[in-house]
Amino acid sequence: MLTFFALVMIFPFIYMVATSLKIPADTFRYPPRILPRDPITIAVEGFKDPLPLYYVEIQGQKQEYALAKSNIKVGQYADPGNPTITAERRLTEVKPTGGAMNQKTATINGKEEKLFDVEVDGKTIPMYLASQTTVGEFIDPKNPSSKVYQNVRLSTPVENLSSHPENYTNVVALQGIDRALTNTALVTILVVLGQLATSIVGGYAFARLKFPGRDSVFIFYLGTIMIPFVMLIVPLYQLMVLIGWTDRLAALIVPWMFTAYGTFLMRQHFITFPKEIEEAALLDGASRLQILTKIIVPASVPALATQATFTFLYAWNSFLWPLVIINVGNEKNHVLTLALNVLRGRASDSPNLILAGAAIAILPPLVVFILGQRFFVESVASSGVKG
């Protein structure tokens, strides 16, 4: 059961990666297929360019024929006096009854229909156009004189498995994903390091240092988590305008280096740290900073990895604030979320390129989560163990 649900959860990721390796036409196939395929073409005598191969059913057997012509209009004609007499002809093969200037008509079910001269069994019969469709002309590659006509949309092309990794280079060339990826990595790393530094110092202060109003200040600081981000956008934007950081990467880094959640997480972890070890270090002459950096922090790797993982995922996938503070036209300061948003419009007819960009954006946080999962599990497990 767990395996089944795991496959269900991972299926969208598999489909995204597979589609990013397809050609545009393959992404619009119905029913959709997971693995990428390319149509096979063949050189036919008398044709300058190679022709695509399709499966054609002849005498109950499927054979490979090349598509020589498409969009051939074919009409189904019927005799007005005897609707059971029908004939299928190309529109160019029939002529108006009575000539183009004086074409005769007939009333069919209360509607005037134009008549055309259609040859049936050696006789020319005036018929009306009952229906119309479009077919393609398929020829035998080995014998071009052998022709078959059938609907191209309903025909199955001959294909083979393939992949197009050049889609990723095309995305980089189209949207400059490499610059956006560099900006995102820079912003994310600095935000993670900044939050870890402020959370460690703040968490240690609230957990170990005694000063007037400590608990009240901590409760007030923790209460800021309940403020929705949408309420902070306008005042935060006004502050960035006042400082002069609009349309700059600094606006994506500095405001997010402080986090009440990270401070709370570190405080709760530091509270569980044995006071006896800290008191012994103080007796040995260690300062508070030395105790924090040389004793507590090295022993808090699982908690730090947990916060770093969550912060990394948040900073990497941030979209609303970069959309507000970074100009869409300033592509040199774009992060991945903004670049993908622009790519969605530029490559709207190429879902394979959009999904290639999405794969580039998803892969780094996926690797970070996999690497940090062990520390996260250790943190959860250790929180339930009593010494």
Q: What does this protein structure show overall?
A:
The chain is α+β, with helices and mostly antiparallel strands. The protein has three domains: 2-39, no CATH class; 41-161, no CATH class; 168-383, MetI-like (MetI-like fold, Orthogonal Bundle), CATH 1.10.3720. The protein contains 14 helices and twelve strands. The protein has helices at residues 2-19, 24-27, 166-175, 177-208, 214-223, 229-243, 250-253, 260-271, 275-283, 288-296, 301-316, 320-325, 336-346, 351-383; strands at 37-39, 41-42, 51-58, 61-78, 86-90, 95-96, 105-108, 111-120, 123-140, 143-150, 156-157, 159-161. The strands form two sheets. Strands 2, 3, 4, 5, 6, 7, 8, 9, 10 and 11 form a ten-stranded antiparallel sheet that branches. Strands 1-12 form a two-stranded antiparallel ribbon. Helix 4 crosses helix 11 (301-316) and helix 13 (336-346) packs antiparallel against helix 14 (351-383). Mean pLDDT is 86; it is low at 383-387.
